[in-house]
Amino acid sequence: MAEMFTSPLTLICPKVVFDLCFREISDQHVDTTGLPLAGPHPLPGSLPRARDYETLAAEIGAVDVFIDTLTWSALSSTVIRPLVERLAPTTTIGFSTDYGYDYVVPREQIHYADLMFKLPRLFDPSLRIESYAQPLPIPPAVQEQARAIRADVPAGVKVLVVHADTDWAEKRWPATRFIDLLDRFLSRRPDFVAWVVGMGHEELNVGRERDRVIPRLGLPLDLTMSMVASADLFVGIDSCMLHTADLARVPGVGLFGVTRSETWGFRFGPHRHLDMPLMADIAVEAALDAMEDLAGERV
């Protein structure tokens, strides 16, 4: 989008999203952190912000083109519609909703990345998503931190990154199965160590191979994602870490239950998906086979 418009873009999103994904695109940002239904939870100890659309609209200012990237009609109607009504932009673009935009992008049953990329293709149908699917633009200082952590790994040893935690209980795979999976994989692959990343407190370093399972939990998001991008292999649930590995073309195994890999899984890099009705239906043996197959082929 930044390549198409001569006027600067204003990004309306939580600060963590702007800093991680959009800071190189534009320096114009309106922070929605803490607004109900608008992004990450407020920081511990802070209260949610009131949804004050008048103040938000005043901060944004005059708008020529407003692009709504939300694909869920109910959420868009609740969060975005009151803002659009106050902004009264000249032109509106968005996905199908209960109220009409000037230009409507139809929703399709395709990968979410491809669905979102239909927005820029409204302006230039020749665009291809692969030309823009690149690793996240992590700040150089943070990348240097990640390289220093990776440099501590002995020469010749590969890194498996594991991401297991989520606030959504239905997307979790039992910790006991992760532990069993790591024990089996690492016992067969002495050339690997495992980094466990995320914001949770899963104690996955309690199995037979515990000495080669290294917790890297609670680190800043950009540092964690840079570490994921430096890995040799990934295994984890449907999450932003899976997408980070995918954009960096790190070979990975994705575990899916209530969500579908066709929509939320790997899109660009080498991968294997395990889809079952419930996460508890995914067997350790199936995950191990997928990891060994991918590691043998790509690592």
Largest sheet: 6 strands, parallel
* Number of helical segments with 4 or more residues: 11
Shape: elongated
Q: Cα-atom Rg, whole angstroms?
A: 21 Å
CATH architectural name of the largest domain: 3-Layer(aba) Sandwich
Key descriptive features of the protein:
elongated; six-stranded parallel beta sheet; single chain; 299 residues; alpha/beta; three-stranded parallel beta sheet
Q: What features would you describe in this structure?
A:
34% of the residues lie in helices and 17% in strands. It contains eleven helices and eleven strands. It has helices at 15-22, 53-60, 73-79, 81-87, 112-121, 140-151, 175-188, 221-229, 240-247, 261-264, 284-298; strands at 10-13, 28-31, 65-67, 91-95, 103-105, 158-163, 192-198, 213-217, 233-237, 252-256, 271-275. The strands form three sheets. Strands 8-7-6-9-10-11 form a six-stranded parallel beta sheet, with helices on both faces. A three-stranded parallel beta sheet has the order 3-4-5, with no helix packed on it. A two-stranded parallel sheet has the order 1-2. Helix 7 links the parallel strand 6 and strand 7 (192-198). The chain starts with 9 loop residues before the first strand and ends with a helix.
